[in-house]
Amino acid sequence: MSERFETAAVLGAGVMGAGIAAHLAGAGIKTHLMDIVPPKLSDAEKKDPRARNGLAEAGIAGALKMKPAAFYDPDAARLLVPGNFEDHLDRLRECDLVVEAVVERLDIKKSLFAKVAAAVGPKTVVASNTSGLSIAAIGEGLPEDVQRRLLVMHFFNPVRYMRLLELVSGPKTDPAVFARVARLGEDLGKGIVYGKDTPNFVANRIGVHAFMATIHAMLEDGLTIEEVDAIVGQPMGRPRTAAFGLGDLVGIDTFVHVANNCYDSLPNDEARDLFKMPPFVLELVKSGRTGRKAKAGFFKKVGNEIHVLDVKTLEYRPQPKVRFESTGAVRKIEDAGERLKALVNGSDKAAKFAWKVTASSLCYTANRLGEIADDVLNIDRAMRWGFNWDQGPFEAWDAIGVPESVERMTKEGFKVPRWVTEMVDKGQKSFYDGAPSARRYYDLATRKPAPIPQDPRQLSLAVLHDDPKRVIKDSFGASLVDLGDGCLCLEVHTKMNTIDDDVIKMLDVAVDEAETNHQALVIGNDGAHFGAGANIMMVLMAAKQKQWEQIDKIVAGLQQALQKVRYAKVPVVAAPFQFTFGGCAEIAMSCHACEAFAETYMGLVEAGVGVLPAGTGCTRQVERWTADVAKLDSVDLLPLIAEAFMNIATARVSTGGEEAKRYRYLARGDGITLNRDRLLFHAKQRALGMAKAGFRPPRPLVLRAAGYDVGRTLMSSAWGMAEGGFATAYDAHIANKVAHVLCGGNVAKNTELGEQHYLDLEREAFLSLCGEEKTQARIEHMLTTGKPLRN
Fold this sequence. Notes:
Blueprint lengths: L6 E5 L3 H12 L3 E6 L7 H4 L2 H4 L1 H12 L14 E5 L12 E4 L5 H14 L5 E4 L6 H5 L4 H4 L2 E6 L8 E6 L5 H13 L3 E4 L8 H19 L3 H8 L11 H7 L1 H14 L13 H8 L12 E4 L2 E5 L6 E3 L6 H6 L5 H9 L4 H20 L7 H12 L5 H8 L1 H10 L6 H8 L6 E2 L6 E4 L4 E4 L9 H5 L5 E4 L3 E7 L2 E6 L8 H17 L2 E4 L12 H9 L3 H19 L5 E3 L3 E4 H9 L2 E5 L2 E4 L13 H10 L11 H12 L7 H6 L8 E3 L5 H14 L9 E3 L3 H16 L5 H14 L9 E3 H16 L2 H13 L6
């Protein structure tokens, strides 16, 4: 068997199992999805293979319908093979990996693993997706050679989107097998956390404790559910779902199960009583109000409003507006650590509550070091990747100040773990220190800082900025950074990585620098998103003052810069990820190739703010939909241009990199990277590979126009959308402009046109729309609310 995992099996076709199978298939791994034979089949159905595989078939069908999508590309479902435990366990012999994902009951898992052990091949890796049962107990009694290949692979749901993968070895797991699975997890795009075989492992142990501490503190302090969620969400660096919103999202019954598991399995835990679920929560589960899946939990939608549970009456009531001086004061602090520090040092009841639950969580977490994981790195990563906290517990502790907070905790009666006080007494004031290029963490085993291990396939621009020789040019909005090996990087670092004058100028400079002193150019960054588009505030201000020449100059400047990118003499590769909107999508489409993150949400969204793509976006869409058939007069361009029209007029945004290819925002040959940490490295390798393969810039395009008549047809469809109530009249007005540009303007069908013709049409249409009051209203609404206006 090769090092690669080529064939897998997932046992259990519920939501979790189907999600794991979909993710494996998305990575190109043929996967058998199996479950029990459905009970109560008729005699005829018992002989029907499809009926016997009914639960697995339903799992695949369910995965295809999941929202958000379980598959990167629905076509990957062809790699899933349905089966059942009675007829198909012999297939396990051909599998490199088997992942069990059945119900969380030890007796059921042990029974299934006994059958699996008899069926697998001599090198098959066997894993359990258990969320908290002991792998030692699961593996007890299995043959020794199987125990050497047995471990926990605990994925978090939804599998595609949750980065965390907890790996836990059994008492006899072969370290080489464990390391091999870790490499697979990284290739699947997961962040690996190494936990120990303790109840609920790492993330759930800390996360559920934090949830339970929050509930008990709420009852002690007399706060309401909506007040608590206003405090423990974004003000504390947690997701918007906060505490009770998260409970509804995950399922209140699931939280009860995990808390009960802690209480039952941890008789010596100093916070054991905290895991006792309050009666009002148990009553919710008893009454079937388990959260979003039951349409009622801590919150309930009533008409168009979200009502909240009154914990005393167990009835729902409208939510009043929650206002606290402390949470209001920190709202605009962007840095999560500074925001938390300011909050817990406040004086109102919200600040005191935030401090109480934070201090409780930090002390409990520090006591778990060595028990659930060996170091602060794994615990912090577990909470960032598994619960989407902005900072892990020890990172948050550093942010609020370790010596100061330890002194305050001690005065207020919190039991700070001795190793923390000893660390502070010896002069170590934080759990992390060092510059980005030499980051260290406090290692409990050695009682001194240790370097954080680095992945050689991870390129960090923050690290490169530590070396002044690497930064070739720097401005407020963008930098040129030497990636080494002859590759240059253009890094945008405006707010949300939007495009402004600084960025446009740096695009121009980047091409010159790359052509003169480098072999290739990459456009990418370390931020949260590739980019949210152009700086529309700049456009709005100019439009309000009727400075049309200024707008024309800005748009023409972006077009010229991107055309320079397009025809650069060295390969230019973009590394888009997450939000890649508007002008930032145009940047990516102008490059010779892209290496995109699997989670790239890409689209030409300008219609949402009342304009159309004018930074070559319309031109690039015409090229990508029609250039291949430009010389084929017999091909009808209408259905092709119609796809580009729908992309732009309806502001289509891809749900991932694979769908971006279907919309032709990405080219068919562009790469998709599953691991975000490796994206910039992969983009660099792609760019240098193109250079070494004898790259030559493309020839100037000549496009065959769809023509005036096709434009009128598209305009008619826009009118029909408006008449049917699916679009506003102004949506149709913008769509008419889009159709005019995409079809080449008022020209005859099959007229051959150069790129500049389309670029001029883009710019003219953009300018005309900027002069419209409704466009200005759309831009203003987006800037003030962050949401599109449908006027």
